Amino acid sequence: MCQLAAYVGSREAAPILLDALRLQEGYFGGQATGLATLDEGRIRIVKRPGPVDHVRATSDIAALTGTTGIAHSRYSLNVLKGPQYNLEGNAHPWPSEDGKTALMHNGIITNYRDHWARLRSSHTFTSYSPAVDDITDSEVALHLLDEKVQAGRPTGEALRETANSLTGMVLLVAVHADEPETVHIANWMQACTLAKGDGETMFTSSRIGLGGLRDEFDVFRAPRNSLITLTRDRVEVAKLDPTRRAPDPDLDEEALLEQSLRVLRDRGELDSVALLTALSKEGFEEAFHVPPEEWRRTYLMGHGDQNQIMEPLAAAAAKGRIGRRVKVRHEGGMDVPRVMWST
């Protein structure tokens, strides 16, 4: 349940991407912030625990230069257990061992331990913590991708093969130093908003992340099961896995609002994760007009588009139909902004 952004164009990427994260992090994110830019044939990365404003104030993240970049705001339920799960090594993006590739992920990889068992003897996992004897699941995707790139596969195809070897909720974003004006995205069933402007393209997890830039772009939601290439002038979308079909049930926004208000009347003020958890147990069937068994199958297949829910609720809040406020909470050793919902 992270929030991501990417930019390719003629403007400096860092301020655009950090603003995009800041607009999104209160919903799902803010526990750690990371940014990678491509500049002068190199990938430069700064990442730290904490939300955007904290990392801006305590690092040189805002000084990264380059007109292509990817950015990540992390949310992990493990972080709620304590700061030992929220170290710099857990933050995205990750660089490959030769520094030429960087990758970030949104979702939960359910078969990461199988890959880790094979990869750990030949690769360094910077997210490994002896205190918890585990890694961040997403880092296996970096090493799987890098193995394919080192073997001569083009980055886009290597990303496709990597994504299709993973199970769970999977959206991967990668850049390579030899492609300084290209961002590759592999999306199974995650939140993915694409934007095409005049000589520039963007990706954000939510339309909310585009903020005041929204009017400068043609904005659309990426299809499920898609392999996406962003360059300055083009947004190319191909099928990620032609052998699989990704369900995409239609959301009834009015039914979603009714179900959300019902939950909030019963339970009181909730953050976005708690509200989604309650709706997933009772409410999504009505909002998506699918039987409970079908919704459960869709979820188990890897559906993880939480922003599909947050965007209409944010729009309803702007009209005064549902309560919304931002509350600062302590998570993983950091003060993090959290959007709270109420009646």
Structural summary, described in words:
- The protein has 343 residues and is α+β, with helices and mostly antiparallel strands.
- It has two domains: 237 residues, 4-Layer Sandwich (Glutamine Phosphoribosylpyrophosphate, subunit 1, domain 1), CATH 3.60.20.10; 85 residues, Arc Repressor Mutant, subunit A (Orthogonal Bundle).
- It contains ten helices and 16 strands.
- The strands form three sheets. The chain has a seven-stranded antiparallel β-sheet, covered by helices on one side. A six-stranded antiparallel β-sheet has the order 5-6-7-8-12-13, with helices on one face. The chain has a three-stranded antiparallel β-sheet with strand order 14-16-15.
- The chain is globular, with a radius of gyration of 19 Å.
- The protein starts with a strand and ends with a strand.
Q: Name the beta content range.
A: 25-35%
Contiguous uncertain segments of 5+ residues: none
At CATH's second level, what is the architecture of the largest domain? 4-Layer Sandwich
Number of helices: 10
| Rg (CA only) | 19 Å
Strand arrangement, largest sheet? 3-2-4-1-10-9-11
Distance between the amino and carboxyl termini: 24 Å
What is the CATH H-level superfamily of the largest domain?
Aminohydrolase, N-terminal nucleophile (Ntn) domain
Output the helix-strand order: EHEEHEEEHHHEEEEEEEHEHHHHEE
CATH class of the largest domain: Alpha Beta
Largest sheet: 7 strands, antiparallel
How many extended strands?
A: 16
CATH topology of the largest domain: Glutamine Phosphoribosylpyrophosphate, subunit 1, domain 1
**What's the domain count?**
2
Briefly note the structural class of the backbone. Answer: alpha+beta
